[in-house]
Amino acid sequence: xxxxxxxxxxxxxxxxxxxxxxxxxxxxxxxxxxxxxxxxxxxxxxxxxxxxxxxxxxxxxxxxxxxxxxxxxxxxxxxxxxxxxxxxxxxxxxxxxxxxxxxxxxxxxxxxxxxxxxxxxxxxxxxxxxxxxxxxxxxxxxxxxxxxxxxxxxxxxxxxxxxxxxxxxxxxxxxxxxxxxxxxxxxxxxxxxxxxxxxxxxxxxxxxxxxxxxxxxxxxxxxxxxxxxxxxxxxxxxxxxxxxxxxxxxxxxxxxxxxxxxxxxxxxxxxxxxxxxxxxxxxxxxxxxxxxxxxxxxxxxxxxxxxxxxxxxxxxxxxxxxxxxxxxxxxxxxxxxxxxxxxxxxxxxxxxxxx
Length: 355
What we know:
This protein is of the alpha+beta class.
């Protein structure tokens, strides 16, 4: 679970209304570069006893001039397609590539949706259907959107899920701007689900709001997807940040910094306006996080450089990061964290939106 106290408290307050989304995706599940060097050295047959091998450190100094690769175009397109279901007013989202996790046995055993505090949207055992998933909470904290992508048609999945007790409202889906929309009843809680295209869908649930308001969340998501309203990735400069961090199995994007845990409580970083972070695997059960923190201008970024470095330095000591690097690139601060895989949750919490 993410270690951020603010995130954990918010998560605890809203778990009850997320339960319906969890159950929905459980039922659906029932239907179906950087590298480190090898620390081991060659043994000389004439030498004395072999020393105990130690991990080869990743020099902090190399980050100052290191060339960071951009996002993979195909994976970036998949990410932005899913995030296009998040309306701009939501302000942030978290993303997880389950298909990539499934393809890497070592990583799948170390990283799970629970480790990203995404169990409220998708439990770890719901991996047979969904390939990628995102989670976005509205600013009021009473509505959750869960865009997801599957290799199966959403309508077919829901029909099969009906055999497991899923209650679909009415005589079938209704239509909204050419999209099929279902009202799904789970333990007395309404979840609205819709198809964006053949294999991409979105689910919505709410806490303390009407069924009509929950449906309104889905409709606003479809409006964003179809281009009738602005999406999260339409935020000026945000797509550029996403394209300039390497692709990974997890990501977080924020169009405003008031829910950015690392800097939201630090005076002197008011110029922060957007954030993008990705996470990928390194050899040796290490995880690398690449982040870009966008500021209004170069002066604001320069002013925040020392404060950001100090905040991350404190976290490095507390969370035992393997490596840390921070540098300024015009109006952005670029951050690279390398952590042991079992410490990934705490590191990711520094960048994941608090809400």
